[in-house]
Structures are given as structure tokens and as C-alpha cells.
Write a structure and sequence with these properties.
This protein has 17 helices and 16 strands. It has 497 residues and is of the alpha/beta class. The strands form 5 sheets. An 8-stranded parallel beta barrel has the order 1-2-3-4-5-7-11-14, surrounded by 4 helices. The chain has a two-stranded parallel sheet with strand order 6-8. It is globular, with a radius of gyration of 21 Å.
């Protein structure tokens, strides 16, 4: 029997996001983003996502009035990639990364969003990042918008609810595409485009109490429509500038199982899956699916869209589908008396057959295989896993050589099982998978809980939940393990006895 390995050219790497990783929030001419006002909730239930995502005007006023507060607004410091980018990229290169997913902070390029000219100092920072990646032959995978619209757009224009934001966004797109033409093969327009429905402030810059007399669901879907149009226009521009470049959508892969075989539960699971797929369906097929149009009609939602909007969306669909996958969940028509647990910025019914992390996220590698097959069967376009991982509490210890490290065996076990599921989807099910970027390759501020102590990386960052620490980097046990996985293209785990 021949040795098992992943396909030739498979892109192994890791992922981050500027709003959680970059830091330097008030340096280099960067302006305020909505992420800079994202308050930690360490004194509350960190699983209460609904409460966390109800950002109001008074919350923003409080945040802006305390510009030096890094404790309660941890995204302002992140992991300080802004000052550590050379060291960090060297660590990625040491692991053998083929690809690195990161985002370009919109407010670092256009501090207010509506500026007449871009911030040259911000562009020079990313010039340096791209130069380091090129030095080590690491392919950049760039997310254009990842949870950080400029705060000014939210306050002055209601951000993505306004059609004007499409023009502001395209100014940003044209600037970075023109600047980095030929350096980026893979682009993603919006991170987890479906997340508008779960955290509209973070994704769309929507502040709930600015829409008191309006249908909130209608506001969200109108904003989503503007993002769909903007994504198509960005795809058009990128293809015109670089026909070899590929543009992808990015979906939160919320995989739901019916809690029982009762038909009502099976139907509930199907409906819940559709509530996520409707966003990728629109971006892949270039038109609204009939079931989403039915929802607009049945809920009395009047979404303003022009014929030109629909033509642009149809003419410029995405080239590939990227997604995040962390865990699966169960749903039931009636969840009375059923135990619930946390997931990726949502809660759902606990699956009694799965284990869970300290934060309640259930581990399900088979669910990743199911997700890959479902997506590939649905779209018949290349897939890219751009977020996958598990957050754990960790402790720095000395190894036998006296070096500081972390024994994160839990990470290794998680990744090993998920990599095997990926291989099965490729080899057994015929899925076309371009690559894999773990979340997150270096510790950063968790989106769901705003904590540093919820650690994902192969590299430990010395910073606690209150922003205290040296920000020094330390290789974890998983660092050398993942390095070997990449070097052998997965053979080291696929051929284990």
C-alpha cells in the first residue's frame, strides 16, 4: 500500500485577523474601528453572546472616552503583531507555512472610512508585511473586511445600512488591490458573511438604538444586500486587475444535527442549515435563493435592491468557498429540558455523544468531513478551510532543556483527528480542498469571549486577560508537531500505526 499524504501543492498554514491580532490600534495614523470599542465581558457570562453583541451608543461613547484603556478593550492591543510582525512571520516560516491568512485593517488605510486619500503610513506597514512573507515564500491569503469597519462610518452613515458605504468600501478595495497587485493570489471579501445576523455591530457597524423605529431584521438584511453588491464589485475589480487571482466568500460553517429522528427535528435542522447557506448560496450562485426571497416576503421585509445590483451579483460570483469550522451542534423543534452549550458566537443543544472544551465548544472531527462533503456537493467549487481550532487554558512551563514552552497535547489531538477527517473527505469523497489555515496560528484575543486566556495558537503570547505581560513569543509543543505535519504533507499522521 502506498503512503498516504495530502495532494501535491496543498496549502498548509494558519490564520489571524487584524482586529484580534495586530494591535498598534492608535499608531501609524490608524483611525478608530468598531473593534476598538469592543469591551471585554470577563465580569459576565462569557457565553452570553447576545448580550455581548448588543452594542449601544452609550457603550461606544464610554469606549471613546477611555482611549488608554487596554484592559477593558483588549482588541486594542491584540497580540501586538504591529511591532512583532518580523518575528511572527519568521516563526511561521520555521513551521514551514505555505500560506498565511490575515486581514488588512480598513481603518489603518482609511482612518475614517470616508477619507479622500489613503493613509500612506498604514500602507507602508502592509508593504513590510508582504515583503516578509515574500522573503519566506509564504502565500498571503488576504481578508479584506474582518469585523472592523471604521467607527466613523457606523456613527455618521449607519455603516453597511447605507448604500454610500459600498463606495467607501470600493475605495479601500481599489487602493489595496492596486498596491498589492500580483502579490496576492487569494482574496476573501467579507469574513463570515453570514455573521451579520448574529453580531450586526461587529460585522456591519450597525448600532441597534440608532434604528429604534425600524424593523431590525430588515435593517440587517438591507445591510447584507449592500455587502453582497460590494463583494461582487470587489470580485469584478480584482479579476480585471489580476485575472489569475481567486476571490472567495467566507462562511461560518454551523453544522447542525437533528437531536432525534423525529421528523420535526429533522426539518428544524434543515431549516437551520438553510439559514446559514442562504448567504453562501447568494455569493456562489450570484442570486438570492428562492427560500431567502420567501423569507423576505413572509416576514414583510422590504429590501431595496436595483436591477443593476442583481446584474452585478449575477455577473461576478466568487471563485471558491472558504469557511470556518470549530464544532457541530444539535437542534430540536422543542428544546425544553434539553441541555445547551456554546459554539462559535452562538448556543445550541448539547450533543451527548461529543466531548467539549472548557468553553463548551464540542469537538467533532467527523462533522468537518460532513461539512466538506455538504459544501462540495452543493457548490462544486474548490473549498478552503480558513479557520479551525480549539481554545484552551494553558500554562508556561520549562522543558527538559530549560526552555519555556506549553504542553498543549489537547491541540495536537484536536488537529490530528480533524486532519484525518479532511483527508477522508478528499480521498474517499472526492472533495477539492485547496488548503487549511488553523485558527489561530499565534495566540490572539478571542472573538467570542474577548479573552487572551482562550488560547488557540502554536505559539504562546505572554499576555493575560487584563493586557498584562511582555508579549514575548514561546513555541508550544504543537509547534514542532505541526511543522512535521507540513514537512511530510500529512504523511506523519496519516500513516500512523
Amino acid at each position: 500500500m502506498s503512503e498516504k499524504h495530502f495532494p501535491e501543492g496543498f496549502l498548509w498554514g494558519g490564520a489571524t485577523a487584524a482586529n484580534q491580532f495586530e494591535g498598534g490600534w492608535d499608531e501609524g495614523g490608524k483611525g478608530w474601528s468598531v473593534a476598538d470599542c469592543a469591551r471585554s465581558h470577563l465580569d459576565e457570562d462569557v457565553q452570553d453572546y447576545q448580550k455581548q453583541n448588543e452594542t449601544l451608543l452609550k457603550d461606544i461613547e464610554e469606549a471613546v472616552s477611555h482611549p488608554d484603556d487596554l484592559k477593558h478593550y483588549p482588541k486594542r492591543h491584540g497580540s501586538d503583531f504591529y511591532h512583532h510582525y518580523k518575528e511572527d512571520i519568521a516563526l511561521l516560516a520555521e513551521m514551514g507555512f505555505k500560506v498565511f491568512r490575515f486581514s488588512i485593517a480598513w481603518s489603518r488605510i482609511y482612518p475614517n472610512g470616508d477619507d479622500a486619500k489613503p493613509n500612506e503610513e498604514g500602507l507602508r506597514f502592509y508593504d513590510a508585511v508582504f515583503a516578509e512573507l515574500k522573503k519566506y515564500h509564504i502565500e498571503p491569503l488576504v481578508t479584506i473586511s474582518h469585523y472592523e469597519p471604521p467607527l466613523n462610518l457606523a456613527m455618521k452613515y449607519n455603516c453597511w445600512y447605507s448604500r454610500q458605504t459600498i463606495d467607501f468600501f470600493m475605495n479601500f478595495v481599489k487602493t489595496i488591490v492596486d498596491r498589492y497587485i500580483g502579490q496576492v493570489k487569494y482574496w476573501l471579501t467579507f469574513n463570515e458573511v453570514d455573521s451579520m445576523i448574529r453580531h450586526p455591530y461587529t460585522t456591519g457597524g450597525l448600532i441597534r438604538d440608532k434604528f429604534k423605529d425600524q424593523n431590525w431584521e430588515e435593517v440587517i438584511f438591507q445591510s447584507m444586500h449592500h455587502q453582497f453588491v460590494a463583494s461582487a464589485l470587489a470580485t469584478k475589480y480584482i479579476h480585471e486587475k489580476d485575472p489569475k487571482a481567486m476571490v472567495g466568500c467566507m462562511l461560518t460553517k454551523l453544522t447542525y444535527y437533528p437531536y432525534s429522528c423525529r421528523p420535526e427535528d429533522v426539518l428544524e435542522a434543515q431549516q437551520r442549515m438553510r439559514s446559514t447557506y442562504c448567504y453562501s448560496d447568494t455569493q456562489v450562485f450570484g442570486e438570492y435563493p428562492s427560500y431567502l426571497l420567501a423569507r423576505f416576503k413572509n416576514h414583510g421585509l422590504h429590501i431595496l435592491m436595483t436591477e443593476e445590483d442583481l446584474k452585478i451579483m449575477k455577473a461576478y460570483p466568487v471563485d471558491f468557498i472558504s469557511f470556518s469550522y470549530y464544532s457541530s451542534s444539535c437542534v430540536a423543534k422543542n428544546d425544553t429540558g434539553l441541555q445547551t452549550t456554546a459554539g462559535n458566537t452562538m448556543t445550541a443543544i448539547r450533543n451527548p455523544y461529543l466531548s467539549a472544551s472548557e468553553w463548551g465548544w464540542q469537538t467533532d472531527p467527523i462533522g468537518l468531513r460532513i461539512s466538506l462533503v455538504d459544501l462540495y456537493d452543493r457548490y462544486r467549487k474548490p473549498l478552503f478551510i480558513v479557520e479551525n481550532g480549539v481554545g484552551e487554558k494553558e500554562e508556561l512551563i520549562k522543558d527538559e532543556h530549560g526552555n519555556m514552552t506549553v504542553n498543549d497535547q489537547g491541540h495536537i489531538d484536536y488537529y490530528r483527528d480533524h486532519f484525518k477527517a479532511m483527508y477522508d473527505a478528499i480521498h474517499e469523497d472526492g472533495v477539492e480542498l485547496l488548503g487549511y489555515t488553523s485558527w489561530a496560528c499565534i495566540d490572539l484575543v478571542s472573538e467570542s469571549t474577548k479573552q487572551m486566556s482562550k488560547r488557540y495558537g502554536f505559539v504562546y503570547v505572554d499576555c493575560d486577560d487584563n493586557g498584562n505581560g511582555t508579549f514575548r513569543r514561546y513555541k508550544k509543543k504543537s509547534f514542532d508537531w505541526y511543522k512535521n505535519v507540513i514537512a511530510t504533507n500529512g504523511a506523519c499522521i496519516l500513516n500512523e500505526k
